[in-house]
Amino acid sequence: MTSTKQTAASPDPSRQNMNSESLNTKDMRRILTSSFIGSLIEYYDFLLYATAAAIVFSQVFFTNLGPGFAAFASFGTLAAGYLARPLGGAIFGHFGDRVGRKNVLVISMVTMGAGTTAIGLLPTTAQIGVIAPVLLILLRILQGLAVGGEWGGAMLMALEHSPSKRRGFAASFANMGGPAGAALATLAVSAATLLPQDQFLAWGWRIPFLISVVLVTVGLVIRLKIAETPLFQELQNKAEAKKIPLLEVITKNPKSLLLGVIAGTSVYSLAGVVTVWAVSHAVNEGADKTGVLNAKAAAAVVMLLVVIVSARLSDRFGRRPVMLTGVISAAVCAFPILWLVELGTVWSFAIAVMLGQGLQGVIFGPFGAFTAELFPTHMRYTGASLAYQSASTLGAGFTPAIATGLVLTAGGSPTLLGAVWILAFAAAAAAILLTREGSTRDLTTMKAGSGRT
């Protein structure tokens, strides 16, 4: 006779999943799918704004400025969302560490969907005046808060359910959602650009933003079916569950946080240059807009594939060796990529963005597990989110505007931009070398401060 009650001889199935070496179980497939789809939707919404900022917003929300300054202002609103990401990571991370990963993820998805849909309905400056760009900035901040809470939770839902030797690959499903969402967002805008220019600027650009309603609905249906992570469930009866996660991260693990931020900034500075600034620059140099966007979408697919490979390699060889390979390679390729963008053709841009996104994928694949393994369970959502989102702010958030300013300062030459790029990757390499290898760590026994070198 069998019993439906859980006994000492009949352990929790979620714990069995963690002890197993396989991710190919029904529960794990559902968890990994949820992590990927949820992240895809959030980053579709968030990165859709980046594409629109590169080719649309300067013409509908900043119409009284010259082309160069309009682009700078448009990228400034882009940065506002990135500034909000660490705050979102702290807020959602606090509740994710105190009340659970799952419920917080549902709230972050609804928040993002509401902000993105509102942008799609926002009147232009010609219609309501200066209030239009003000509202655009506020909605971008709302997007930033939402995505700030999404990645950490989606990543931890996968990682904390997975077997220890597959953590890198499991965590990468949240990272895969980024390039997949970017590809979907770029293709949506690319399709809209097939409209006549006046119709595209009048209403066509809004369609990709309004599609968010459908995507969020699908994502919620999937997300509501998954269970809380076993590591968080174990935490509930321990004293650490009552502590304030943000204070714990700042006072007990500041070095881990700082190293994680510096390492991650390399990923996002690369993204800001090749997927935002380069798009605007190539289009302004005369490259076909639709062709540039299609190349960017193809590059996102390349990045997704590289993320899969690099994450799996990190489970075999460690996070640090794989990430260092990507960081060093990206520094070496800085000037070749910028030279290709400068040529101003679709094909040269395509090669540049595919190379850049591929190198980004090498670093990005292990990065979810890399940050998670820096912090113990009771502060992991907050710590990983703060590291990741702060890196995104310093990297992608400011890079397009900084890149524009550096090129203007250098009289149109990318020399200064390339030099700053190389310095950022040198700092990232040093940070990675100063961290402890996390792939062999036992997450169930980590203590505060144990992420230090």
Automatic annotation (TrEMBL):
The chain crosses the membrane at residues 43-62, 68-92, 104-122, 128-148, 169-191, 203-222, 257-279, 291-310, 322-341, 347-370, 391-410, 416-434. It is a multi-pass membrane protein. Gene3D superfamilies: MFS general substrate transporter like domains. Keywords: Cell membrane, Membrane, Transmembrane, Transmembrane helix, Transport. Its main location: membrane. The keyword Cell membrane applies. Residues 1-23 are annotated as: Disordered. PANTHER family: SHIKIMATE TRANSPORTER. This is MFS family permease.
